[in-house]
Amino acid sequence: MPQYIFAYHGGKSPESEAEGARMMAAWKSWMEGLGSGLVVPGNPVGLSKTVHHDGVDDDGGANPISGYSVVEAADLHSACAMAKGCPLAVDGDGTVEVAELMEM
Question: Which end of the chain has fewer surrounding CB within 10 Å, N or C?
């Protein structure tokens, strides 16, 4: 079955311990709901840099990645349906970019 990467963009740090617990519970619930389709739960990522022919920029680009996961799905449409439940997409704090991982 094809695999897809979910590249998370946006989101915000919790402003309180209670908000952090709520956010973690939402992520855990969503990921559990993906069942065996969740291949690599992934992680959030730290600050990024953008490497290009003129050097390295410290800004992470126009829409820096904030985390990732890898799922298995029948097709791109199915993978996008899985991503719609992501807390970033549901809460409106960010987006989920979905792309098929190509075998070489």
Answer: C
Instruction: State pLDDT tens for residues 65-96.
Output: 999 999 999 999 999 999 999 999 998 789 99
Q: Are 8 and 66 in contact (CB under 8 A)?
A: yes
Q: Are strands 38-44 and 50-52 parallel, antiparallel or unpaired?
A: unpaired
SS3 12: coil
Cα 84 from Cα 98, distance rounded (Å): 10
Residues 6+ apart with CB under 8 A from 12: 93
The CATH number of 3-100, from 3.30.70.1060, 3.90.1150.10, 2.60.40.420, 2.40.50.140, is: 3.30.70.1060
Q: Please say whether the beta carbons of 86 and 5 come within 8 A.
A: no
